[in-house]
Each structure stands twice: as C-alpha cells, then as structure tokens.
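Hey L., structure's done. Input below.
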Amino acid sequence: MKKYAYLFLVFYVSLAAVSQNKENCRSREYVIQGAQLANQSYTFSKLSYFVNSQKLASENTDSAIFYIEQSIMAIDSAIILASDSELLALDYSNIAKKFAMRSYKLLNACRQTNDAGVRLDYAKQATFYSANAVTDAYHASFYFKDCKLVKEEKKDSVPPAPKQLTKLDVDQALFTLLNEHLVEKTEDHKKELVKLNQELKVTKDPAKTAKIKEDIKRMEKEDAALAQKNKDAKEKLNTINTQIDERDKNKSAAIVPEETVFSKSMKKPADEWNKPVLLDTELPMGLVYQVQIGLYKNTIMPEIFKGLTPIFATTVPGGISYSTGMFERVADANQAKAYVKSIGLVDAFVVAFYNRKKVALAEAAKLEKK
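Output:
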C-alpha cells in the first residue's frame, strides 16, 4: 500500500504541469490503456491457474504482476488528469484501481506461497479481480472526455502536447517529494523535542517524567534514522539530476535522419521495419552493430520502446534480450544510441556481431576499416 501511495504522489507531481490544463482530455486514453493492461494481466493470471507446470505458473504470475502494476499506474494517471466535473468517470476509475490493487496483492501472495492449493486459490481470485478492473476501467472511459471529439470542436486551437514521462522523470519526482517529506518530518521532530524538553523541566510527577524521557530517547533515535534517510535521498536525487542533464544533452545532440538511423543503415526501406517485435530473428552475415536496450525476465509490451523500430527480441539464458536497429557503421550505431537514451532508455549500449557471432567493439572497429 505504501508503494502505491508513493506511486500516486509521484505521478501527481510529474504530471502537475499537464493537469493544470483540465481540458487536455488525456484521462480517457490513460484509463483505456489501464483496461488493456489489466486485460493482459487477466490473461496471464488465468494461464497461471490452468497450467500444471510450477515453473510456467510462476512465469505467468510474474507477467501478470508486471501488467497489473502498469495498469494501476495508467489508471492513476487518468484519475490525476481528470477534470473536477468528470465525477462518474472518477468513481469508476477508483473502483477499477481498487480491483487492480487487490489483484496485485493476490498475485504477489501467489508467487510467495509453496502450497499448490493456496496458489491456485490466489490465482483464481486474482483473475476475478483483474477482470473486474478491466470492466470498470472501460466503463470509466465512457464518461471521460474524448480527445478526438474535443479536437474537432476546437480546430482553431491546438492544445500543447503533454510531456512524455520517462522513468528518470518519475524517479526525480519521487525523490524530490521524498526529500520534502523528510525535511518536513525532521522539522516537526525538532519542534516536538523542544516541547518535550520544556515539559520535562516543569513536570514533577515521576511517572510522567519517565514517560517524557522515554519519548525523547525514542525521537532522538528516529532523528538519527531520518538524517541518514535524508542523506541517502539527496545523494540519489543528485545522481538522477545528473543523469537527466546528460540525457537532455544527448537529446539535443541526437539528430534522427529523415528515414531514421534505425531503418536506412542496412540499405532497406523503412516500411520493411514497420513490424511488431521480431523474436529470435537471424542477423545478416558480415558486420552488424545493434543498440542493446536491456535484458528482461519475460516478454514485455512493444509500447515500452516508444515507437523504436525494428525491435529485436533474442532468447538468452535468464530471459529475453531486446535491441534495436541494424547498422554497418559504428557511427550510425552511436547516433542511434544517443537517440535511444534521449527518450528515457538510459541503459542502452552498442553491441557488435560478425557473421552472427558477438564480437568486441575493438575487433568490430578493425573489421569495419577493411
């Protein structure tokens, strides 16, 4: 519960600039996205219930948890961006969120239990709750403003596009909020300690004196813990701010060519790459560079990659490796890497293959010169 309380506050802070304009009508899009994600979670919850293999059941549970987490955040975004007049939509959105959170709690319990009967019961209940979350999220969408209709009504005025949030932006909002909370709590503690010390000076009742001393000792320990938390949060925030500055520099430096570096560099037209994620696709012979995005335990939604194409998914020990693009020159690969980082996928790096075997970048550089 604490985790989702923080997530709610994070999205509130991160989307504050957008929510100032109550007529941006983005809530409908977010709540529909929440319904779609909850539906994915429903599918994996159901699979977890029906499969006999413990391993497959565990993998399906992990996928269901991933999608229901994303669903909760999407529905939260819809609630935050809603206008004050969209009361019925807000009611259904909050109901959908409650069902999604119940499903999330049960799925986590399902993952942690070793009792097969209990696991099945949890999976069955989680499936029921995620299905309800889907229904209510879609129901909420009926009562939110439709962006398309609003645009048709206001052809002369084009509302500003909302900022595309990245994980770094969300983390920055979280730790900024956490810093403020810790500072406020520290100040409150100081005031309380002053008050307790003043009471201690005038109190003559031995029992009350002992109680005050005990409270002072407890609060002094809490103050020490608060000071450490404050220090850790500030250090983390400084790191995030540095990463955001670097990302923004890369974004300003990254120039995507007309056909995009993700399609032109292997001398193939862009429409050949206009496909979903390509799983275990064989690379061409010769020297090929790619931008590796990350390694994930389970398959993830293409939307995570924010329109990058082509996306290659390769099954490896421990999960699935995702990468983008195919390049003949390291210069193109580095340019693509800068662009990928600029849209929030900050862990991206360049990898090289020669005749479908991975090679070091130093060796690839020599091969490229031949």
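The first strand starts at residue 278 and ends at 279. The two ends are 59 Å apart (CA to CA).

-- N.
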